Amino acid sequence: MSNKTLRVKVWRGRTSGDLVSYDVPRFDNQTVLDVVMYIQRNLQPDLAFRYACRVGMCGSCAMSVNGKARWTCRTHVSKVAVDEELEIAPLSNLPVIKDLATNMEQFFDKWAEAKGQFKGERTRSDDFSKVSPQSERRTSADAGIECIGCGVCYSSCDVVTWRPDYLGPAAMNRAWTLMNDERDVEGVERLRAVAGDAGCHSCHTQGSCTERCPKQLSPTAGIAGLKRLVMKAAIEGKL
Ligand code: SF4
Ligand code: SF4
Ligand code: FES
């Protein structure tokens, strides 16, 4: 058993609630998710939070840790604790279901609003599309494809805070990825979807989303790419 202790404050409640303090044994290589699980298993069995894979793939474990959104299963306590203290809260910019669990519905609805679904035109009797791995569009699609839908960028974006209808960085990163997919046929409709007031032109490009993304993606670059495509399509009279 460890003889060091971590002092942890955890949000309990919904829109209204309070930070509640717990003492948790401190271990080497302990992650923030380990801390939350210790509290639920040993101190507060009704603590609500979400996780699944514990290896940085599912995107479900994001929380606010000492004021910054992070994936908790891959965040070591040693990197974020200040004087052996942690404050853990639900992600910002999303409604709280209970304690550390947020409702991600609006986050994923915005992926759909930004036309974040692939739409092809080939049938199963057609040959495979041949996309050169070296092509510029394929390289751009690759740069954004590893999004795990964790919501860290969305929670870190102050434009989402100011105007809740803003599509946000993850949905537009997805739209940009699909705009670079040579097999997709819904480009013009997608550009219309991201061109409005709540779309790419509301991004101030300061890059909190890119700074915080745990997968080192750059939604900021993708949104800048969408701005260029929207401008080009408008000049060509396609929008
Ligand atoms: S760069 Fe744009 S999308 Fe990213 S956090 Fe800032 S306003 Fe939000
Ligand atoms: S872009 Fe990055 S921070 Fe945003 S949802 Fe995807 S993986 Fe998470
Ligand atoms: S639990 Fe799956 S990404 Fe953290």
TrEMBL record:
Entry keywords, A to Z: 2Fe-2S, 3Fe-4S, 4Fe-4S, Iron, Iron-sulfur, Metal-binding, Oxidoreductase
Domain of life: Bacteria
Family named by the database record: Belongs to the succinate dehydrogenase/fumarate reductase iron-sulfur protein family.
Lineage: Bacteria, Pseudomonadati, Pseudomonadota, Betaproteobacteria, Burkholderiales
Cofactor binding mode and count: Binds 1 [4Fe-4S] cluster. Binds 1 [3Fe-4S] cluster.
Protein's name in the database: Succinate dehydrogenase iron-sulfur subunit
NCBIfam families linked to this entry: dhsB
One GO molecular-function entry: 4 iron, 4 sulfur cluster binding
Keyword check for 4Fe-4S: yes
Domain 2Fe-2S ferredoxin-type stretches: 6-92
EC number: 1.3.5.1
Source organism of this protein record: Caballeronia telluris
Necessary cofactors: [4Fe-4S] cluster; [3Fe-4S] cluster; [2Fe-2S] cluster
An annotated GO BP: tricarboxylic acid cycle
Catalytic activity: a quinone + succinate = fumarate + a quinol
Domain (4Fe-4S ferredoxin-type): residue spans on this chain: 137-165
Pathway: Carbohydrate metabolism; tricarboxylic acid cycle; fumarate from succinate (bacterial route): step 1/1
Keyword Oxidoreductase in annotation: yes
PROSITE patterns hit by this protein: 2FE2S_FER_1, 2FE2S_FER_2, 4FE4S_FER_2
